[in-house]
Amino acid sequence: MKDYFIRLFEYDRYANHIILESIVKANNPDKPVKLMAHLLAAQQVWLKRCQGVPAVAGVLWPDWPVDILAGIIDANSNQWIEFLKGLQPEDLDKFITSKTSRGDTFQDKLIDALAHVINHGAHHRAQAGQHLIAAGIESLPNTDYIFYIRALNHWQ
Questions:
Q1: Going from the N-terminus, what domains does the chain have, and what CATH number goes with each?
Q2: Burial class (CB in 10 A: 0-12, 13-18, 19+), 87
Q3: Mean pLDDT of 152-156
Q4: How would you class 142 by CB atoms within 10 Å of its CB: exposed for 0-12, middle for 13-18, buried for 19 or more?
């Protein structure tokens, strides 16, 4: 299962870069840039939660310029994958405690938090794609997981 989540986070990196390329080609429309910055900031918060480290109170909707997002995508992905590599199989069923930005405390299984991070990214990439279409981009890249896996298997 750990290897499966590593593959999902590698896919997440790929899909984030693909959408970011479309954002840049569309001359950086404001809303897609903000969505990508939020996606990446949330990944950082969730990583701290999963590591059991209190997340530094930060902005979940940062005003990051587009030219730093590629580096953040790679840094986030590398940190997530290193975290995952250090897990034991039984760690996935352990509960993590987290506090929301409003101060509410929750306990979730680590495996569910990991699934959330991946799904949260897909959700916001789709939103960014819709805003790119509204901004006039003619077609979006295919960021579906299965196409990533097929391409990965073809390359190997």
A1: 2-155 (1.20.120.450)
A2: middle
A3: 74
A4: exposed
